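Course assignment 3, question 2. Fill in each field.
Student: A.L.
Task: Predict the tertiary structure for the chain below.
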Amino acid sequence: MKRTWEIATVTDAARARIATARLAAAHGVAALDRTRLTTALSTQLRQCLTKGGTWRLTLDVVTDEAAPGTLHLSLAACDPAESAAHPPWRASVVCSEPSAAADGSAPPEATAELAESLLGADEDTALVLEKLTDQEELVAFHREELHQTNQGVVALHAELDAAGRAQREAFAAERKARTEAESARRRLTFLANASAVLTSSLNHDEIVRRLPELLVPEYARSVDVWLFDGDAEQAPPSPHPAAAVVAARTGRPQYAARHPGGLPGVDDQPPSKLNPELPLLCIPLPTRRAPLGVLTLTPPAGDRWNSDDAVMLIEIARRASIAIDNARRFEHNRDIAETLQRALLTDLPATPGLRLAARYLPATHGLNIGGDWYDAFRQPDGGLIAVIGDVTGHGLHAAVMMSQLRTALRAYAVDGGSPGTLLTRLHTFLHHLQPDLYATAVIARFHPDESTMTWAAAGHPPPVLRTPDGQVHTLDAKPSAMLGIPLSQQIHDHTMEMPPGSTLALYTDGLVERRALGIDPGIERLGQALGSLGPQRLETDLDGSADRILDPMLSDSERDDDVCLLLCHISADRA
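Answer field:
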């Protein structure tokens, strides 16, 4: 079906529009599509009337029995020139339900028909408006759903944000706890290492020197150790700040700065007049009786100390004080022991045909003084006893015990007796006097009327003999057990020829024993040192010979034990 209208006036346009609407309705075009079609057609018709001229509207319905039909509209200018300037307008809609009245609809001619057409158009408009209302309700429903969804999303975001904030707070708390734990571990490690360093020395000057090395620069910029020589109440030299004096008098740590430190166990003081801008932490060095001194610190890089650092520094000062106090006590006891030891080492007697030279060197490390001793004295029959020994233990107690052994030996020797007999009596004496104390000793007996030397040993390193021909012999006859052990023993004598020019070396283990090597290599070295000495030097300078033996023997020694050496030389001109 095909219809054509010529349009030159507004009336022509209205009739063509009405006819198109009717035909579209008759061919089953849906109301919404029909309204869209007629609205678009009205817009084109107004444009054509504005341009003027005559226009041709063509409506063509193409039907198909197997499928819905299609309604085609075409609006073009009748004038070819105008048509070339303005391309035709075309539109198509689907005819879903063809109508039986679709064959003869004509444009309305009367006013009543126009009115009827307008009413029909209003019906279509009403239908469209109803559709629009439904769509608006649907849009409102979806808008409400979207609003609810947005609220849910906002609530979810709020929950996620709260969860994220809680997680961040948990992470921050964990990091803080880890940091605090690491700081505590670091302080404990430092405290343990510092304690080991401070207690590894028994020299109080060395301990004082090590304190700044431990604390600078991590915990302090500078460290000053003020040790009291006497009364803690004495006025300090001018460089010491007033807070250090208060710490010395009160025994409490003091913090001197422009602002309070708030440190636990520390009193606040005004800033030091020596340097008001620099905070000071003055910690007394406590002992059981009175402070030994005051440790004064300045903060690292101008910062302040926190509470944990202050507690640790106070503990460091306490441990340093204990170490210094122990070192001073050790030095005091060491000095007493060495003084007593040297006082008991008497001068060697002068005997015709026999020269004696002795050396005693106290230990330079540790409290290992007071155990080694030597002695030489005459017996009533003209013989001479040379003895060297070592009391187990060290310090003042060992020195006192050594003096008792020395006195007892001299008393026993007055009644005569061989070296073995004297050592046997000393063994019994020591066992009953000090059951928990032991000693080693070697006794050699020389007599001007005899060409032999008699000796006996009790748990002591063997004597070393240099004969006139330069040969060196170790008198390694099996010695008896140590003196004082809970064992009944009879110590036997040994005899050795001593021709003129012979030299006997008696010594303690501090001369020959090394921890890593043992004692045998040291005895061999002693024999080499003794054998290297010329006979003339031994004859004329026995004291110098003793020094020449000690120098190479002690070059690799840590001097952590006493050293005794006693040389007995038979003169070459002895009859």
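Instructor remarks: Confidence is low (pLDDT under 50) at residues 100-105, 231-236. The chain is about 45% helix and 20% strand.
Grade: pending
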